[in-house]
């Protein structure tokens, strides 16, 4: 492993984290790369390259931010998937595993290939002739004050009904905790291969989530009575005020590679985060997430049973 590409959060201060990586890279004689447009945010020792070449030139990517930055790193390597290590600077990340103090050890383990790979699927979408990919979701969203999204649903070429709602969200399993969940959709295990379609605030037509096989082809086509629609990809606006056309969606396995050092611990952390989404969590499960010393102290303070 000779070169690492840095993918930076667009607005957060990443100076401290980049400094840790830069000092490590200097000790191990590794090249660091960053997009040309981010050159002013890092030192002159980091090589600026065109945005579409960072993933191609790097042996691995380091995402510095939250889930949004991580998704951007995965999308940037869609044509040649590279391992992506996530460093957490966000608020409630489900994809990112490493905290900044853990970075030196994590980088050394990355160098010695002491990690596992968690593969992620994406949605490969044809949006009115333009190809885009989404690792979380693709959503057709109403413009405020302009009426409702009205689209027909076809699966493998067969019409199945229509939606009339504030939005229609198509998500992957990892995306089921995001917009789809907020719209009332189910949580899908990351180990499952499936696609879920969820309407937000439905007024007519299909009013519940639909879970589909990954091998089924999905087509959402704007109806003549639809208001102008915003097309969002992983929360980013891809097309604004579309008034006609269709979105064709297929499921692509193993489109992204995420570095995991401790999959069990990562899963436990995500369980804790999920409690913030109102999922039940037993007290003894919460105690298991405490550091070992605090766990022993808590156990000592529990009175013995009568």
From TrEMBL:
Pfam families referenced in this protein's UniProt entry, alphabetically: NAD_kinase, NAD_kinase_C
GO cellular component: cytoplasm
InterPro entries named among the record's database cross-references: ATP-NAD_kinase_N (IPR017438), ATP-NAD_kinase_PpnK-typ_C (IPR017437), NAD/diacylglycerol_kinase_sf (IPR016064), NADK (IPR002504)
Cofactor: a divalent metal cation
EC identifiers of the protein: 2.7.1.23
GO BP field: NAD+ metabolic process; NADP+ biosynthetic process
Keywords: ATP-binding, Cytoplasm, Kinase, NAD, NADP, Nucleotide-binding, Transferase
Main location: cytoplasm
EC supergroup of this enzyme: transferase
Described purpose of this protein according to its UniProt entry: Involved in the regulation of the intracellular balance of NAD and NADP, and is a key enzyme in the biosynthesis of NADP. Catalyzes specifically the phosphorylation on 2'-hydroxyl of the adenosine moiety of NAD to yield NADP.
Name assigned to this protein: NAD kinase
The species this protein was found in: Micromonospora arida
């Amino acid at each position: 492993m000779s070169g690492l590409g840095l993918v930076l959060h667009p607005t957060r201060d990443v100076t401290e984290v980049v400094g840790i990586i830069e000092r490590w890279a200097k000790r191990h004689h590794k090249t660091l790369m960053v997009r040309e447009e981010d050159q002013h945010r890092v030192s002159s020792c980091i090589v600026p390259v065109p945005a579409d070449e960072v993933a191609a030139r790097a042996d691995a990517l380091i995402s510095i931010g939250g889930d949004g930055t991580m998704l951007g790193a995965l999308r940037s390597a869609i044509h040649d998937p590279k391992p992506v290590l996530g460093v957490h600077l966000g608020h409630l990340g489900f994809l990112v595993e490493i905290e900044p103090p853990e970075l030196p050890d994590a980088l050394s383990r990355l160098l010695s290939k002491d990690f596992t790979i968690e593969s992620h699927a994406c949605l490969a979408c044809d949006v009115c002739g333009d190809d885009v990919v989404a690792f979380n979701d693709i959503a057709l969203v109403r413009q405020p004050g302009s009426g409702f999204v009205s689209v027909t649903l076809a699966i493998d070429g067969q019409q199945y009904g229509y939606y009339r709602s504030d939005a229609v969200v198509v998500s992957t399993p990892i995306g089921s905790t995001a917009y789809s969940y907020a719209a009332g959709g189910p949580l899908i295990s990351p180990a499952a291969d499936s696609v879920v379609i969820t309407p937000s605030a439905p007024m007519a037509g299909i009013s519940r989530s639909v879970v589909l096989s990954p091998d089924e082809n999905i087509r959402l086509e704007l109806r003549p009575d639809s208001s102008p629609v915003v097309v969002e990809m992983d929360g980013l606006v891809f097309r604004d005020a579309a008034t006609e056309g269709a979105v064709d969606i297929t499921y692509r396995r193993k489109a992204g590679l995420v570095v995991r050092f401790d999959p069990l611990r990562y899963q436990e952390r995500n369980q804790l985060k999920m409690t913030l989404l109102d999922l039940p969590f037993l007290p003894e499960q919460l105690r298991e997430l405490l550091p070992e010393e605090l766990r022993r102290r808590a156990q000592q303070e529990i009175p013995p049973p009568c």
